[in-house]
Amino acid sequence: MSIRVHLWFQAVLVLLLLTAGSIRADDKADIKEIDDLKSDPFKQYEREDKMRALARSGSAEAANKLIELLADDYVHIRDAASDILIEMKGDAIITCLIKALAHKSADVRWRAADVLGYRQAATAVKDLADKLKGDKEVAVREACARALGYIGNEEAKKALIAALAQGGAPAGAAARMLGVLRATEATNSIDKLLKDKDWQAVVGALDGLGDLSPDLNVKSIAKCQANKDWRVRIATAQSLARVSTTEGVAEARAAFALLLKDNDWRVRRRTIEAVIFWWQPDSVELLIETLSTEKSALVHDLVHGLEDLSGERKGYRAEGWKTWWESSAKTLVKKPRQTFQGWLRAPEKGRLAESGGGETTTFFDVPVLKQNAAFAVDLSGSMRNPLSQNDSRIPIELAREELKRTLAAMPQGSMFNVCAYRYSSKFPPETEWLRAFKDGVRDINDANIKAGNEWLAKLEVKGWGAFYEALTMCTDDPKVQAIYFLSDGAPSRGAYVRRENLLAALRKAMRFCPVTINTVTISTKGRDIEFMEDIAKEGGGVCAKVLK
């Protein structure tokens, strides 16, 4: 080796020793600014920008700071940190995330597991398997099961199969992922999980069997229609919708017939959707039978399903559909590709009178049917600002006036509540869950209408808007069947701010709470309007634009 090369190696070695354990100057500056902005609620957008700048370094220090933010006081920062870590480049990232599986914060542990799964980090399988087996927090074990499913190699499959024996929600998550991975060797073990006492375990097993072998396990699946938990009964219908053999169809039809008579409207609505997805001649017959007895607004779903299956329009009377079906060739139209939103949708405004379902009114041009409704109103600070320099109207005043008109005209026999959710402009951030009636929806009558209007009139408009929480707080009341959500912008706080993440989380939350979500936007910004349109589409509703 030449003297010159030897000296060069010595210089590099000295440099490495000097920099080992130190933080890059740029990283140090970004980390300091992220920390300095932590307590300023008006600087969180700038804080996110610094997080992205920090991630570009790809260093272990940057990764560790972002991992720390997975448990930030602002929940939207946690979600942003997850997204950044998923995309971040650098040799040290996976190692840092694996170490985070042992973090003292459960929020950090489960989010780190999710990130490892999305990154398909095969080197993390052993650590994820260990946490799936031994972490004390259920949410962490569930996240580890999801991550192993996303990685999906043989070692990950073995860990998931082993997890079935522990029962509960983590076993349900493992069963679901084994179904996605088409791990047929786990079928018998998943079938046994249907007898678990935990509803999440049973739902996961139903999901797994729905992907693996619905026809072979149809008898076991069908028995779950008698489960006491409504979520299990919904998952039963969705699993049965995958059955296709002649023997299986007969078994599924008998279970569907019982589920369509369920006392819980949520089960009936999801079963209607599952029967449509099934796309069998038996689907038409079941929907016609149910149409003759269903008295709620679900008749719209039944008719939409019959129209989708047949390509015909025969109105809202079961007799008309029955006469047509008996004289037809009993064939169905070609099944179209299903959207993310499924088969449920709001009725067309021009066809409401055709249903004979009684009087309806509107909320900013959105039809209000005879069903239990929650009106969710954005109370963030921007709702008190004039619409524009040329339009002095105030968004919150428009909302209050329209709510008064709508409630006064709502169909008798329906119920309502008024809700709002917001973050305060304080640190640490405080959240407010606000309902006119804390005990849930109330009957439409003069006293309740007066109380609802007065409650909204007294509320101060301030703070930051959060869409996901505002929508899901409405579904906490099992009687709510439709949501009318009004905002003048896009979310700036809450668990999910990014559109794709919010819609995915909303889809998951609505699986067992199949409300119709309608939106009203008081905005002229294209991206804000698109956001509200997407939420309505996700919820099978319609979006009204006040400022056309």
Proportion of β residues?
5-15%
Q: What proportion of the residues is helical, as a percent range?
A: 40-55%
Shape, principal axes of CA atoms:
flat
Kindly state the mean pLDDT as a whole number?
Answer: 91
Structure description:
The protein is of the alpha/beta class and 548 residues long. 54% of the residues lie in helices and 9% in strands. It is built from 26 helices and ten strands. It has helices spanning 3-19, 25-36, 44-55, 60-68, 75-87, 93-100, 106-118, 125-134, 138-151, 154-163, 168-180, 187-193, 199-212, 218-223, 230-240, 246-259, 265-278, 281-291, 299-310, 318-327, 352-355, 395-409, 446-458, 467-475, 499-510, 526-538; strands at residues 361-363, 366-368, 373-377, 415-423, 431-435, 442-443, 464-465, 482-487, 516-521, 540-545. The strands form two sheets. Strands 3, 4, 5, 6, 7, 8, 9 and 10 form an eight-stranded mixed sheet that branches. β8, α25 (499-510) and β9 form a beta-alpha-beta unit. α11 packs parallel to α13, α12 runs antiparallel to α13 and α18 (281-291) runs antiparallel to α20 (318-327). The chain is flat, with a radius of gyration of 27 Å. Residues 1-9 and 11-21 have low confidence and may be disordered.
Topology (elements, then pairings):
Elements: H1 3-19, H2 25-36, H3 44-55, H4 60-68, H5 75-87, H6 93-100, H7 106-118, H8 125-134, H9 138-151, H10 154-163, H11 168-180, H12 187-193, H13 199-212, H14 218-223, H15 230-240, H16 246-259, H17 265-278, H18 281-291, H19 299-310, H20 318-327, H21 352-355, E1 361-363, E2 366-368, E3 373-377, H22 395-409, E4 415-423, E5 431-435, E6 442-443, H23 446-458, E7 464-465, H24 467-475, E8 482-487, H25 499-510, E9 516-521, H26 526-538, E10 540-545
Parallel strand pairs: 3-4, 3-8, 8-9, 9-10
Antiparallel strand pairs: 1-2, 4-5, 4-6, 4-7
